[in-house]
């Protein structure tokens, strides 16, 4: 890799994670890839997180801190994007941490392969448009934003939606629709989770899941507008996601007053599953993709 390395902005949305935040910040600031900035967005935390953010900003010249009223995960991510100075964007949750070579493992490929996006998946290699978007919609590429490294310019004109669930996956759909070149690598080791029930990206219940159908419809509408020839792939992606949500929601123990909402959500999910089943992207599907269809049927009926 050329040592004239691009600046990377690592954006960390922060909400009530004081018990983990120092570990997270230290892991980012002690990367072997040194040309980076850490962007901490305090999303209205009510614990000691704001003070910890300010402490790191005073200690390190490459730390930016923004304090804002609580607006949720997407608002924090959008704020981070608005102040980030890097040529590439990466993400870490405030209750997680990364190994010292995490950023370098992405940037070596981004620079050496001269690509817009580096992500992880099971179909390794370099892809142009629309091949990368197809691979993503078929779930051959991971659907989590923290396992991506994306050229900053691709985010221009985009923002994370206000949906209560799946905003990162929707953003990735839009990024792949803009990217000219993507490199997919095997899923790397080195990203570590901590379980924080109050984290910006961890809180899920029937309330957040109620927002999934609207998020799914936005994905379908976006693909219909930007790449209508790939609508069957988008329906496949939504079908797969709906099956996962269906299984999770069906297993939720809920009080009587929530059962009607649960019934309504399951009905909406069944509609997305049925649409996907009747519009399969067979020209793009492999044997493993047909296996995914079988798993979705299992999620819905068993």
Automatic annotation (TrEMBL):
GO terms for molecular function: glycosyltransferase activity. InterPro entries: Glyco_trans_2-like, Nucleotide-diphossugar_trans. Gene3D superfamilies: Spore Coat Polysaccharide Biosynthesis Protein SpsA, Chain A. Coiled coil: none annotated. Residues 9-131 form the Glycosyltransferase 2-like domain. Keywords: Glycosyltransferase, Transferase. This is Glycosyltransferase, group 2 family protein.
């Amino acid at each position: 890799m050329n040592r004239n390395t691009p600046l990377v902005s690592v954006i960390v949305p922060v909400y009530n994670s004081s018990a983990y935040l120092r570990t997270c910040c230290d892991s980012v600031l002690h990367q072997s890839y040194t040309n980076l900035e850490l962007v901490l967005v305090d999303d209205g935390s009510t614990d000691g997180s704001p003070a910890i953010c300010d402490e790191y900003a005073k200690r390190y010249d490459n730390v930016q801190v923004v304090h804002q009223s609580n607006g949720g995960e997407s608002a924090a991510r959008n704020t981070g994007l608005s102040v980030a100075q890097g040529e590439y964007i990466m993400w870490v949750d405030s209750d997680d941490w990364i190994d010292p070579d995490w950023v370098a493992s992405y940037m070596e490929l981004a620079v050496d392969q001269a690509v817009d996006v580096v992500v992880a998946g099971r179909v390794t290699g370099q892809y142009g448009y629309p091949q990368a978007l197809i691979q993503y919609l078929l779930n051959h590429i991971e659907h989590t934003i923290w396992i991506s490294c994306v050229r900053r310019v691709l985010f221009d004109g985009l923002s994370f939606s206000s949906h209560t669930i799946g905003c990162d996956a929707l953003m990735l759909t839009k990024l792949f629709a803009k990217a000219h070149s993507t490199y997919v690598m095997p899923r790397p080791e080195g990203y570590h989770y901590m379980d924080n029930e109050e984290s910006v990206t961890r809180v899920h219940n029937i309330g957040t899941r109620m927002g999934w159908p609207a998020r799914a419809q936005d994905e379908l509408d976006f693909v219909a507008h930007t790449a209508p020839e790939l609508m069957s792939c988008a329906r496949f992606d939504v079908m797969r996601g709906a099956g996962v949500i269906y299984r999770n929601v069906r297993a939720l123990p809920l009080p009587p007053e929530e059962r009607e909402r649960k019934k309504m959500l399951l009905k909406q999910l069944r509609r997305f599953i049925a649409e996907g089943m009747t519009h399969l992207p067979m020209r793009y599907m492999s044997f493993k993709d047909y296996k995914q269809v079988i798993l979705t049927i299992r999620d819905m009926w068993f």
